[in-house]
What does this fold into?
Amino acid sequence: MTIRYKNAKTDLTTTNATDVFSVPNATTAVIKSILVSEDSGNADTITLTLTDSASAIFSLFKVKAVSANTTVELLTAPLVVAESEKITAQAATANRLHVVVSYMEIS
It folds into this structure.
């Protein structure tokens, strides 16, 4: 078993759903942290979903508020994500939010 510590990050430059993190084949990930930072001086909201290997979509956070010029930790406990699953983020307004996912990759 190999464990690697990694992060995935994205700048939500549109209001489209954006893939932030996808679990590679033959791998399980333990997400330790999901940070969302607002950098424009305007409050905004974010929606985070988890898509499983069968393409079913599950809400993790639906229209979660992020205050102006703040960073929010979304997780209060680790989240296990299986092979071929992905985390997607969608901002209410473009060019305001950054997302950083810190995780352990186990293969």
